[in-house]
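Whiteboard transcription, Tuesday session. T.W. wrote the C-alpha cells on the left side:
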C-alpha cells in the first residue's frame, strides 16, 4: 500500500540556516544559537525546549510506532504541550504499515491515530524508499539489518532534500545512545562522514 502521508511534500529544508536538535540531556545551554536558525527541527518530547535548548520549533518529528506514540495518542493534554503547540509542521519518520504487514495495527503502527490527533495541522511522512536507503547506508557498518533511529532518518531526509551549496546544518544534542536496537556506532560514523563532507556541523555535548 502506498504511504498516503508520504504523498505530501516534505517541509522545505532549504532554509539558509537549519538547526537539528536532538534530546541528549548533555546538550548544554545552546538556546541562543538554536533559536537563531531560520529552521529548527526537533524530536518527540524535545528535551530542554523552552530552556537551554531554545524555544523555537519549525518542524517537530514524532515517532509514530511503539509505546511512545500510543502514549501521545492517549494523552488528553498532548496537543497542549508547548513544543507540540508551537510547531509549524510535523514529521512522522516511519512509513505507515500496510494492513497485511506484521504490526500494522495500533499495537505497533500509530500513524493514523496520531495523524488524526493532530487534525488539520500539516503532517508529513518519510517514505519506504528513504528507509531502504537508510538500511543500505548503515547495513554494512552495523553488522546486519539495522533499525535506524528517528534522528538518523530525519537527518538523512534533510540532507537529501537540501541543496549541497547551502551552509551545513547545525546538529545539537546528538549523543548516539539510547534504545539498544539502534546501530549507534554506525550512525555516529555516518554523521562524522557527513561532517567531513561539509554537509553538517556536529556540536559536542557539554561535559
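and on the right, the sequence the group agreed on:
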Amino acid at each position: 500500500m502506498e504511504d498516503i502521508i508520504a504523498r505530501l511534500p516534505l517541509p522545505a529544508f532549504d532554509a539558509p540556516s537549519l538547526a537539528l536538535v536532538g534530546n541528549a540531556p548533555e546538550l548544554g545551554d545552546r538556546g541562543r544559537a538554536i533559536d537563531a536558525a531560520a529552521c529548527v527541527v526537533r524530536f518527540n518530547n524535545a528535551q530542554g525546549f523552552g530552556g537551554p535548548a531554545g524555544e523555537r520549533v519549525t518542524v517537530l518529528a514524532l515517532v509514530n510506532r511503539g509505546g511512545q506514540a500510543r502514549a501521545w495518542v492517549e494523552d488528553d493534554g498532548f496537543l497542549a504541550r508547548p513544543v507540540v503547540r508551537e510547531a509549524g509542521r510535523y514529521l512522522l519518520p516511519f512509513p505507515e504499515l500496510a494492513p497485511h504487514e506484521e504490526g500494522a495495527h495500533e499495537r505497533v503502527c500509530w500513524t493514523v491515530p496520531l495523524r488524526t490527533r493532530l487534525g488539520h495541522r500539516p503532517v508529513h511522512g518519510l517514505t519506504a524508499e528513504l528507509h531502504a536507503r537508510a538500511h543500505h547506508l548503515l547495513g554494512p557498518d552495523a553488522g546486519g539489518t539495522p533499525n535506524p533511529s528517528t534522528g538518523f532518518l530525519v537527518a538523512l531526509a534533510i540532507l537529501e532534500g537540501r541543496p549541497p551549496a547551502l551552509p551545513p546544518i547545525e546538529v545539537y544534542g546528538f549523543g548516539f545512545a539510547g534504545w539498544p536496537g539502534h546501530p549507534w556506532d554506525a550512525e555516529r560514523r555516518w554523521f562524522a562522514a557527513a561532517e567531513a563532507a561539509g554537509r553538517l556541523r556536529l556540536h559536542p555535548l557539554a561535559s
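Someone added at the bottom: The domain at 5-202 is CATH 3.90.1480.20 (sialyltransferase cstii, chain A).
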